[in-house]
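#structure-requests
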Amino acid sequence: MRALVVEHAEHEGAGLVGAALDEGGLALEVVRTWNGDALPTRDGAGYDLVLVLGGPQSANDPALDGEAALLAASTRAGRPTIGICLGAQLLARGLGACVRRGPAPEIGIFPIALHEAGKKEPLLAGLDGAPIFQWHFDTFDLPDDAVLLASSARYAHQAFRVGARSFGVQFHPECSRAMRVDWATRGADELRAVGVDPAALAGDDALDARGLAFGRALLQLVGVRE
């Protein structure tokens, strides 16, 4: 089984989610758009999973039109399709929803609340009220026919589902402690400018465990059984 993984920055890989997918036997084909790689497919055909990660870009950048279209086409095909942070915004945009600046930066480790539909999703198991890593400035409207799964105190749209197997999550389950520390180090000036202490982003082992659990639940969505 194969997963298409789209990266937007050298230091923003699939992390814990990628590790769980690899352990489950999925071959990860990583497209490094930051290094000039082109998308190998317009609709995800030939892959068992399409996973589009975060990045510093705006989801409204015309350069990302192809990714938004890929996510939408993969969703319509019923293929397991996941957008994380920027990827979630691109999924929403590809399905016709508006992406815009949020009310305030959401950077740090904050709890999310699952709605009733979210509590029934294995992908989000254990996340109701749990702290999770966030780093974003933008938000999005829900696409038509989307089901809202989770919210946070600042952002109403933290996770949504379209159809049975397509999900967008605004938070970062993929980030390990090492990734969080690296991001905080790279973005220390940006963090201080918005009143965030870089040291506060390290988190703990429980945060990493939630990321691995998200990846393992994604394996089940794809059809890999433990």
